[in-house]
Write a structure and sequence with these properties.
The complex is a heterodimer of chains A (about 290) and B (about 425).
Chain A: H1 7-17, H2 21-31, H3 60-72, H4 98-106, E1 109-112, E2 121-124, H5 138-144, H6 156-159, H7 168-175, H8 180-189, E3 192-193, E4 207-209, E5 216-217, H9 238-253, H10 257-286
Antiparallel strand pairs in A: 1-2, 3-4, 4-5
Chain B: H1 12-20, H2 23-32, E1 35-37, H3 46-67, H4 75-84, H5 89-117, H6 125-147, H7 152-163, H8 172-180, H9 187-218, E2 234-236, H10 237-262, H11 292-298, H12 304-324, H13 336-356, H14 363-389, H15 399-407
Antiparallel strand pairs in B: 1-2
Classes of the chains: A mainly alpha (about 290), B mainly alpha (about 425).
Chain lengths: ~290, ~425
């Protein structure tokens, strides 16, 4: 089921032969990569993401558009239960104003309680609340969706991925490419066909998708052109919406990404400098000592 | 070894203390005055690197334990809580997860260095076996820790690994139920794994102390493999190796922080961001990369018990290595034939690692069998035979002589 490159073996072998055991051992983890895009599914293409790479940052306008797509389309079936409203205003995210987030939270009702009488009650959501899920539990979700369970989307871009194959997995080591999940999601959202190819037997109630494992997915194509009307005037094509909502879900999965990359760059700089100084110290100390 | 220079404190309070508890003298003799071969290369810095990772794992682990909840309905959420809501929780968590990978990466280099330069051979058998014990404890700690986030891979790894014990006749099943604390992997399993994940590193730490102690009895091996003969062959540990090790540690940190900050999930598996679900088996259950060679050996034979025995046997090979290699020469620098077999073994181990990541079917099973057979062949046939028949190349008279030869300087050494 895994279309792993057979060249990988001979390559690793040759590398080891050259004595580059260090590199090879480091590469070993990458051979163990997951088999998500399987069962005849096509390999997603890598997209240009603003948050990719060492200096990657989220595009705030894109996150806001993605939030709009989630709220107007995805949220009908998919929850976002690990995302607190307050985070929409926090640095490194959509960075909406507190007032805007408060207003947005007010549109949701959450259960609270028990009150003084011991009764549970509903109230409008506060900044500290989390996005309420569309279904009370998994069984209810399945019952409403022909037996299929729409997964919570909070960390979906980290819980999906695809095999990179040789030699990409090797270059990924140095480029820090970690967008397999979000690339897969974009591919999935744009990978529908109205009609299954000839000879393909589609089960009842299923939809054909190039990128889903087995090519049949219970979720019907969720996006259609002009499906939402963007507040910022961006033209709402399927690709645009897929891209925006994928980016937004990358943020929900990794809300500390910007902080991490910013601090990481400073740490790398510091350690480079430190290592350089240590190198010269060591050299100086050992100069004249036969070793 | 004449490694124990006397520690004579000048300060009267230090002297008072030293007369009652000679712990400063111990530190002095093992980290300051300790006589270390002068020709150690950078492969010898991995001991220090490993100690740093042990410290990183302990410190980050203690902090994670303050926020983690070992409960089957809360464990996954508490891990996400650490990543999202705890201040710098993402940093602590990614350091701990990637620290484990770096720990294994460094220990494999450390072990292969021992293979190549014959550090496992006498008089260092005890030192080596303590190392093998540490490696086994590391694997236990790594596995236990991987279960704690209670994602899909955590749950199914726990299921697969604990089920290995069921391969043993009669006692197998009771052992498995005892490990689980029930009839399936569940709350009692998670709870005790958490306890063990805290316990095992403590035991590991004790063995690390013993490992260092044993090192200071027999002294360092070195790239020539010849023993220290005079004071000329050595340098005091401080400042020469404290500084060199510190440099290597800082340089190695670059790899570590690259993963922590720029690719923290690359060494993990996306499925572990799906909460554990006993009703859904992942299409492929793959262990962490550092277990893959042993996973391939486990699945190489159709018989479960056979696979389990082979896997434990593969680990046992490491412990008996000192008695399998009979060569008088330690370092493979002087054993060209064995050096070739060393590299073949490295390739075999990497190949097994790759096979461990493949599905156990078709051609992969056949290749796994061949690679497993070669693994055992290396230890049981090649090592004893080659070491018996290969005549080592002439070795230098002393470490100092080899250093001088390398420098192309025939005059005797003057400096101390």
């Amino acid at each position: 089921m895994i279309k792993r490159n057979h060249m990988m073996t001979s390559k690793s072998v040759r590398k080891a032969l050259l004595g580059l055991a260090t590199v090879s051992v480091l590469a070993l983890p990458l051979l163990a990569h997951p088999a998500q895009a399987s069962g005849g599914a096509a390999t997603p293409h890598t997209q240009n993401w603003s948050f990719a790479g060492v200096f990657g940052r989220f595009d705030k306008a894109q996150l806001k558009r993605g939030l709009q797509v989630y709220r107007e389309v995805c949220s009908a079936c998919h929850g976002l239960k690990r995302v607190a409203f307050r985070t929409l205003a926090e640095p490194g995210g959509p960075e909406m104003s507190i007032e805007a987030v408060k207003a947005l939270a007010k549109e949701y009702e959450v259960q609270d309680g028990p009150d003084d009488e011991g009764e549970m009650y509903t109230r409008t959501a506060l900044l500290s609340d989390y996005f309420p899920s569309p279904y009370p539990n998994d069984n209810a979700a399945r019952a409403s969706n022909n037996g299929a369970l729409p997964p919570d989307l909070s960390i979906i871009t980290k819980a999906r991925g695809y095999l990179r194959g040789f030699p990409n997995w090797f270059f990924d080591l140095f480029t820090g490419y970690q967008e397999t999940g979000v690339d897969y999601l974009y591919a999935l959202l744009t990978g529908y066909e109205e009609e299954a190819p000839e000879g393909f037997v589609l089960n009842d109630g299923m939809n054909f998708n190039h990128y889903f494992s087995g090519n049949q997915i219970a979720m019907p194509a969720p996006l259609s052109d002009e499906g939402v009307e963007y507040a910022d005037g961006t033209k709402a094509t399927v690709k645009q919406m897929a891209k925006d909502v994928s980016a937004f879900l990358m943020w929900t999965a990794e809300p500390t990404l910007e902080q991490r990359k910013r601090i990481g760059f400073q740490v790398i700089l510091f350690i480079l400098l430190f290592a350089g100084m240590m190198y010269f110290t060591t050299k100086r100390l050992w100069r004249g000592v036969k070793h | 070894m004449s490694g124990h220079a006397t520690f004579e404190p000048q300060n009267k309070y230090v002297k008072w203390f030293e007369d009652r508890l000679p712990i400063l003298g111990l530190v002095h003799s093992s980290l300051v005055a300790f006589q270390t071969p002068r020709n150690l290369n950078y492969w010898w810095t991995f001991g220090g690197i490993l100690f740093m990772f042990l410290m990183i794992q302990i410190i980050t682990g203690v902090i994670l334990a303050m926020h983690y909840i070992p409960h089957e309905t809360l464990a996954f959420d508490s891990t996400e809580h650490i990543l999202r809501n705890v201040n710098y929780g993402w940093l602590i968590r990614y350091m701990h997860a990637n620290g484990a990978s770096m720990f294994f990466f460094a220990v494999y280099i450390h072990m292969f260095r021992g293979f190549y330069y014959g550090s496992f051979k006498g008089p260092r058998e005890g030192l080596w076996i303590l190392g093998v014990i540490i490696y086994n404890l590391m694997m236990a700690a790594g596995f236990l820790g991987y279960v704690l986030p209670w994602g899909q891979m955590s749950f199914w790894a726990a299921t697969v690994i604990t089920n290995l014990f069921s391969a043993f006749p009669i006692i197998g099943e009771p052992i498995v139920h005892w490990l689980w604390g029930g009839y399936s992997v569940g709350q009692p399993t998670l709870n005790r794994f958490y306890s063990f994940h805290y316990l095992v590193p403590m035991i590991l730490f004790v063995f690390v102390i013993l490992h260092v102690w044993a090192l200071h009895v027999v002294g360092n091996n070195n790239p020539t493999g010849i023993s220290v003969k005079s004071k000329q062959d050595t340098l005091p540990f401080h400042p020469f190796y404290t500084i060199k090790d510190a440099y290597a540690i800082v340089a190695f940190l670059l790899i570590f922080v690259w993963f922590v900050f720029f690719n923290p999930n690359q060494l993990g598996h996306p499925d572990n961001y799906i909460p554990a679900n006993p009703m859904v088996t992942p299409p492929h259950i793959v262990p962490e990369w550092y277990f893959l060679p042993f996973y391939a050996i486990l699945r190489a034979v159709p018989d479960k018990l056979g696979g389990v025995l082979l896997m434990f046997g593969a680990l046992a090979m490491l412990a008996v290595m000192p008695w399998l290699d009979r060569s008088k020469a330690r370092s493979l620098t002087y054993r060209p034939i064995m050096a070739v077999f060393f590299w073949l073994f490295v390739i075999d181990a990497l190949f097994l690692g790759w096979l461990g990541s493949q599905p156990a079917e078709g051609i992969y099973v056949i290749m796994s069998r061949l690679a497993t057979a070669y693994y055992f062949l290396h230890f049981l046939i090649i090592m004893p035979l080659v070491s018996t028949f290969e005549k080592p190349r002439p070795r230098p008279e002393s470490i100092m002589q080899s250093v001088l030869d390398k420098a192309g300087d025939a005059s005797p050494a003057k400096e101390a």
